[in-house]
Amino acid sequence: MHASTAVAADPLPSWRDRASRQAIVAFVEKVTARGSGEYVEEAERIAVFDNDGTLWSEAPMPVQMDFVLHELKRRAPQEPELASDPMVQAALAGDFDALMAGQSHAGLLRVLQLTHTGMTTDDFRRRVRAWAAQYRHPRFGAGLAAVTYTPMRELLDYLRNNGFTTYIVSGGGADFMRAFAQELYGVPPEQVIGSTTDTEFVLADGVAALRKTSERMFIDDKLAKPVGIHERIGRRPVMAVGNSDGDQAMLEYTTLGNPHPSLGVLVHHTDARREYAYDASPPVSGRLANALAVAPSRGWIVVDMAADWSNVLHPH
Amino acid sequence: MHASTAVAADPLPSWRDRASRQAIVAFVEKVTARGSGEYVEEAERIAVFDNDGTLWSEAPMPVQMDFVLHELKRRAPQEPELASDPMVQAALAGDFDALMAGQSHAGLLRVLQLTHTGMTTDDFRRRVRAWAAQYRHPRFGAGLAAVTYTPMRELLDYLRNNGFTTYIVSGGGADFMRAFAQELYGVPPEQVIGSTTDTEFVLADGVAALRKTSERMFIDDKLAKPVGIHERIGRRPVMAVGNSDGDQAMLEYTTLGNPHPSLGVLVHHTDARREYAYDASPPVSGRLANALAVAPSRGWIVVDMAADWSNVLHPH
């Protein structure tokens, strides 16, 4: 009876009692202990999380790409112009090399534009939710929850229960993630920071709406992550969690020159059996090389997925 | 004793018992009454407020312009290049016509660039706070609080006490307002939406910082207000409060086509004795003409400052 109560009370049951867990718990206990000298008031307890590869799996391809393909397949039969676009044809044929070609990945941007702009924000949300309802990971099965990491969902809850505000800061589309971030992660729309383009205000037949355009693109990745954080939060986070070189600047902004105590965490994908194993050569995106190399000198925690997590994917 | 208790319990003591107050209270009571059919859950109780002319006075000139002049005066003696700029000379001579000339107000943008970019966000915040500490309104006296409207501060508190989240959505600079919005309005940095430019991530001597640049300017006014609201909040507000045509699109986005009950409020400056009286011909900015004309058909509340408010400026 006592033992099971103790287990139930563990806020991080999927984290083995190893260095990563110990460092996270020590940090949270330190910044929440009044009079500890390292106490951080609640309003400043900002924790930022990457999404792809950090909160959910980004293999064998980023989840958002599944939405792109779903939309292209759904629309191509009724939209000849869309169906005849060479990049749509490349996407539907699974030719990701064609989409990713060139420095600016013009093919990828083209199919993103075709599937993410031109409709109102309300319509877009409905499309994402319709897609999400039928999503199935090729290996892990049905539902978006099936690709999320249980230890990370526990960590989000643990931080919020300790007065932290948890933000997603991802290269993924903000409007895309907002359609399910509350449900999956307990993160409301206003705490989702991601890639954006401008919307356009339209007022017709007594209804005001915002139409998604391709203008003023903001890609919330690499050096732009701290930029997005400042623009949207206006405070320096005290904790940052990522898994790739795209998160390095965000971790640096959080941990270098912060007047508050801070913690940087990198998730290292070491578990081919339960999820995937990669770092410098990821399946599609999520390269981890430079950030891993500087982690020791920066004092960042590196989570060894295989060793540190007793559960990986969320039960569904 | 009983009478004074009743007065102390009034959440809006500076609002006279007239139509404006009654409409606001009726709206708040309706959306917070479970089972009312018009109940709005807390997470969706988003209220957005313009700042200049809505939360504080924008006459005889916008407060942020005082910061610009203060910085130019402070720096000109040490910075010959800055001092020799024709637009700096126009500003220091009080020639606002020169600054506002042309469709794009190039002179104004020039002095804003000189005073709002080139430094880190931390440095900028220190400069704003140093200026704020010595600020004095030419008519109302010392301190930023002296130009804020007591009824609006009461309204912000009243809404928050009823589960609303209150955002500032202003054409003013986001970083500028964030330096004092918590203190003046109880609005934390992450709930301040304003005009922005990009920052640039810099890492030097083991310290990460963000340097303010002139790139990718976003002017959070007029049709861009709903755009900023969606980008930053990702939800449609249920209440919007403004005072000028620059707020019209924000009020339309809030009240036209909203699946929730909604309320639009315009402050009409009718009180030359206690503050200022203007609408279509404002001192510098804050023109109210078209929004006032459409208010009745939109069902928006128009606050008559002279008649509706028993107090105007905050005691200091």
UniProtKB/TrEMBL annotation, chains A, B:
Protein name as catalogued: Haloacid dehalogenase-like hydrolase
InterPro entries the UniProt entry points to: HAD-like_sf, HAD_sf
Highest taxon in the source lineage: Bacteria
